[in-house]
Every structure is written in C-alpha cells, then in structure tokens.
C-alpha cells in the first residue's frame, strides 16, 4: 500500500497472523505437578505476540490471589486435586479451547518420631480466639477409644501431645501472627485481624508439617 505524505510516495508493508486466533497448543500452562493444600501455587502461559488477554480458569474451592488477565496467575490451592486452565485472546478471536495443567494436592500431616501427627484448629471461622492442638498416635493405630468431655469435645485415649510452632499469613502472604505451643496447645488471638481468609502453617522441629485455611469472621451468627 502506498500513500503520498507530501514528501514523496511512501510504501507500507502490513503483515497479519492469517486472520485467526490462537489454539490451545499455542499456550501450554506451566505449573506444579504437586502442591500442599492451602499454600500458594503459581502458573504461567507463554508470551504470545498479539495476545490481548489471558483468561484463567481454576477450581472453585481454590482461592484467587492475583494475575487474572495476565500471563502469570497466583492461587492458594484447595484441599483437592485441581486443573488450572487458560484461554488466550488476540485482536481476531476471543481464544480457543483452554489449555490445562493438573496439580495433585496433598493435605497429609507430617509424621516423624515414631508416630503420626494430627493437628486441629478451631473454631473455623474464628472471631476472637483460634485454638490449635496437636496429638501423636502410633502409625496404623485404628483402635482408639473415644470419650466426651463436659464441653462436648471428644477426647481420644492414648493421644500424646507434641510441641509445635505456627505462622499465620494473609492470603497475599503477609505474616500477621506467630506462636509456640505449650503442652501441645496454643490459643491465638485473632480479634484484631480483619475478616478474610488466612493461611495457618504448622511446624514441628522447624519443618512445615501441615497447612490449613482459616477464616476470620467477626459477624458469626451463634447456633
């Protein structure tokens, strides 16, 4: 194509991608094969020339953090396996079929020391105090007897308390609370935290052994 700008004829050469959109084979998703539940997971798609939008799809029980519309997506994994997909659009098309990456999720508590560890955090949602407790039983023991305390909570005979430390993060990864158990128990004051989703990490002898999603909600309606 030529035009005269007043300074002589100028020739412009235009190129196109053939007038079509991308296909799912153009944008494979990169991400983890395995992850621990309630931890951050990161996904990405290729930087495609002409791309105008990256539309991400993720499991409903996972938590969105940031990145929708861009090449990079950050989520908090849920408690079940999930597939994260993306559809890439350009000026010619809204995007083809999504490309997916499947991540296997593990929520198994860490063991060690000849026993299998178990951790509980309640109430959840919490409004003032979050109580975290630990116990250890011999691995493979399935014959525990259960009694009930005056408070209505079950107490299993033969459970041994173990010490642990915790860290509590916002969904964006900011550390807001930390603490150390006494007698295998810890009461965490969350009354000054804004309502929202938090990530509780539990450590045994400095090693991360379990992660839980905690909800802080001040306007809890009593049962």
TrEMBL record:
Residues 28-97 form the PKD-like domain. It holds the Pfam family PKD_6. Residues 122-216 form the Secretion system C-terminal sorting domain. NCBIfam families: Por_Secre_tail (TIGR04183). This is Por secretion system C-terminal sorting domain-containing protein. It comes from Thermoflexibacter ruber.
């Amino acid at each position: 194509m030529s035009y005269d700008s007043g300074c002589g004829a100028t020739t412009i050469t235009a190129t196109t991608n053939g007038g079509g959109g991308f296909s799912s084979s153009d944008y494979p998703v990169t991400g983890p094969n395995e992850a621990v539940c309630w931890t951050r997971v990161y996904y990405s798609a290729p930087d495609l020339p002409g791309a105008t939008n990256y539309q991400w799809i993720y499991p409903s029980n996972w938590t969105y953090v940031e990145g929708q519309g861009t090449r990079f997506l950050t989520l908090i994994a849920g408690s079940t396996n999930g597939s994260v997909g993306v559809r890439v659009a350009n000026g010619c098309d809204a995007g083809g079929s999504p490309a997916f990456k499947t991540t296997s999720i593990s929520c198994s508590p860490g063991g060690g020391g000849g026993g299998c560890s178990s951790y509980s955090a309640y109430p959840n949602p919490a409004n003032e105090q979050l109580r975290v407790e630990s116990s250890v039983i011999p691995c493979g023991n399935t014959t525990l007897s259960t009694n009930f305390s005056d408070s209505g909570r079950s107490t299993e005979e033969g459970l041994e308390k173990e010490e642990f430390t915790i860290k509590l993060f916002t969904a964006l990864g900011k550390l807001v609370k930390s603490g150390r158990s006494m007698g295998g128990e810890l009461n965490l004051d969350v009354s000054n935290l804004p309502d929202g989703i938090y990530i509780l990490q539990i450590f045994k002898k400095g090693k991360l052994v379990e992660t839980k999603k905690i909800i802080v909600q001040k306007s809890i309606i009593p049962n």
